[in-house]
Amino acid sequence: MSCLRKHILKSKTYYLEVHDDEMILSEHKNMLNAKYVIPYKWETRVMWKASENEELCAFGIYYNNRIKWFDSDHNSLNLLKIHLSARVFFGNISIFYDSNQILGQGASSKVCLVKCKKSISNYAAKCISKKYLLQKKSSDRINRLKQEIEILQKIDHPSFIKLYEIYQGENSYYIVTDYLEGHTLYNYIKTYPDDQLPSFQIREAIKVIITALNYLDSKKIIHRDIKLENILLQKPNDITSLKIIDFGLATYQEPLQKLCVCGTPGYIAPEILQNYNNEEYFTQKCDIFSAGVIFYKLLTKRTLFRAENTLEIMEKNKQCQINFQEFEFKLQKEAFSLLKAMLDPNPKTRYSAQQCLNHPYFNCKLENINILQEILDKATGFSGITQIFDQKETHSIGQECQAAQIKRCNPTSYKIRIEQQKRSKSPRKYADFQFYYPSFCQMNSLESLSSKGSSYNISHIENIVNDKLDSVIEDDEKQQIYHI
């Protein structure tokens, strides 16, 4: 593009070219003997001027501690701004955005909702205080911000927040990114109406997260702060629109980074807390463990390391003594297998992101716990509390029949083997099908009922269940196909 450098006596025309690592300005159209060479460095800042009708009319560069202004038409300047976006700091953010709402705030920064004046599109702007960055005599905080911006510039993936522009004001730095309308994954789980997320949503969510981590691995980047609060839904209530945010603690795999306490208590890989004084280094397996903690929460709606204060959480996180037997029979076997592989305390045997994606869990048939539980309730006659207490021999069902326990019991699994099946239509083989129903509904209860002359004997129940199962599986398959 061409632009005009105005002087009192005589103005000069300059020709501008944008390259991958620098912008050059020359008085010659063949771009020889360039007078201004502006590399894309931390110190580089491009300023802007707008006319009364809010159209761009000039840009400025710092040269010998002065701003040199160049005039041009709006379309050329707007195209220049697009090419320089996220490569260098811009000035005069108020020319382009309006802001009147704070989305979140921390000790060192706040996140504002900003609206683009031209397109009326919404974006999020992370505002970092210069005072906070310069409080320490060391340059650690500045270096972390530089690395965060550098990493965001390299990432181009739908599961990560996208960097659009960076601005520098008198008192703050501004990082303009996507505005995500949905809640954090933490709030999504918390406000979900049912006791358990649907199995297809759990699988979709963890697949998006692991796929994103696999992308980071290909870029040799470690996030180091994967947690429920750092995963947002771009669209409200759409779990397929997950995006990972906040690269403030992110680093590169190479050169190797020595372990230091880094992350959020309860999500930190145990090797970080156990070996940070030794010659050990960060690996991508740290993020896999954190994703495993999220997977645990999705599957069980429980917090993995529960304690009353942060110190106790850190200690449990460090010891990493997980009682897998507690919920082994409450989960689908493929989900349970993947969960154990992700939460392996040993980083050498813990799965990588690619190994997780190759796990059978992402290809197996999902079992809808709630639907299968409802079918068995109806088949056995235990669909209501009153029916249970109407039985004369309540001792055969056990103490779990008490109403208070029934209301808060979780589904448990029981394997039913069907040795003899005579099906006239659409025969299916359920040699070892994992079946789910309430914990108070044990097999010995069914046997006792049939021996007492109940109208529901075991073979009759099996026939009802098998007749219903075909339609349930077909409906479940349609539901999964629709959501995929």
TrEMBL record:
GO terms for biological process: mitotic DNA damage checkpoint signaling. InterPro entries: Prot_kinase_dom (IPR000719), Protein_kinase_ATP_BS (IPR017441), Ser/Thr_kinase_AS (IPR008271). One of its GO terms (molecular function) is ATP binding. Pfam families: Pkinase. It comes from the Eukaryota. Keywords: ATP-binding, Kinase, Nucleotide-binding, Serine/threonine-protein kinase, Transferase. Residues 97-362 form the Protein kinase domain. ATP binds at residue 126. GO terms for cellular component: cytoplasm; nucleus. PANTHER family: OVARIAN-SPECIFIC SERINE/THREONINE-PROTEIN KINASE LOK-RELATED, PROTEIN KINASE DOMAIN-CONTAINING PROTEIN. Belongs to the protein kinase superfamily. This is Protein kinase domain-containing protein. It comes from Paramecium octaurelia.
